[in-house]
Design a protein that fits this description.
Shape: globular
Radius of gyration: 18 Å
CATH architecture: 3-Layer(aba) Sandwich
CATH topology: Rossmann fold
CATH class: Alpha Beta
Number of helices: 9
Oligomer: single chain
Length: 266
């Protein structure tokens, strides 16, 4: 591993001159992270689903970043289309001028069903989007970053990286494996000055948790168990994402940073 750069503390969190590729940035945690990276000085490439009549393009995050005076571009790809994912990193490189310094794998999907009735098609969808697409993108990023001896890869894991959950066997399997993949890549690439880490959100008020938020009993049970006394908000990830993307985390490798209001400590 290269020595940590001698940078004044006031500049440790600057991403000026850096380019970030981020999936899942159209809403929720991903949107907040993309905007935070731009606020720290990075140019940002947002991965979005191919637009169609049923899924028109969502340029809210793109416009928010450009309103800051930062550079933002979009590359279209459906992450459940693994053939398209295999060419995604190169497409982003071409759009961003041949350099990507930061990869953030934030996109994810959820399917809920009792394990005895969990559809095989749902299992495949969740594993492909939440794990295999992350592996393919991370491998492509490593092929770009390792020879240059610089780079940051940040994977969004989950509390279910550690816990089993209920009625979400595919999600738990994918996020558990993603934690191990994060550590495995860090073991190989840390010595090449490429830091690979994960962020594990707790209970966050986003669309993915809308069923839990709409269930008064589960909402009360979960809320009472969070020491911070509230569910998280997407903006709670602005600081952690900038930290892991910046020189401030140069000696942080293979970590799974839990952002959960104290849930795991309980």
């Amino acid at each position: 591993m290269d020595p940590s750069p001698a940078i004044p503390a006031s500049a440790l969190f600057s991403l000026k001159g850096q380019t970030a590729l981020i999936t899942g940035a159209t809403r929720g945690i991903g949107a907040a992270c993309a905007i935070a990276l731009a606020e720290a000085g990075a140019s940002v490439c947002l991965v979005q689903r191919q637009p169609s009549e049923s899924t028109p393009p969502n340029h809210e995050t793109l416009n928010a970043i450009r309103a800051l005076g930062a550079t933002a571009e979009v590359v279209y790809c459906d992450l459940d289309d693994l053939d398209a994912v295999r060419g995604l990193f190169q497409k982003a490189l071409d759009i961003m001028g041949g350099q990507i310094h930061i990869l953030v794998n934030c996109a994810g999907i959820q399917r809920r069903s009792p394990a005895v009735a969990f559809p095989e098609s749902d299992w495949d969808d969740v594993l492909n989007v939440n794990l295999k697409s992350v592996w393919l993108l991370s491998q492509a990023a490593g092929q770009h970053m390792v020879p240059l001896r610089r780079g940051k890869i940040i994977n969004f894991c989950s509390l279910l990286t550690f816990q089993g959950g209920l009625t979400v066997p595919a999600y738990a399997a994918a996020k558990g494996a993603l934690g191990q993949l994060t550590k495995a890549l860090a073991n190989e690439w840390s010595s090449q000055n490429v830091q690979v880490n994960g962020i594990c959100p707790g209970y966050i008020a986003t669309d993915m948790n809308e069923k839990l938020l709409a269930d008064p009993t589960r909402l009360r049970q979960i809320s009472e168990r969070i020491p911070a006394g509230r569910w998280g908000q997407p903006k709670d990830f602005a600081g952690p994402i900038v930290f892991l993307a910046s020189p401030a985390s140069q000696y942080v490798c293979g970590e799974l940073l839990v952002i959960d209001g104290g849930w795991m400590g309980r």
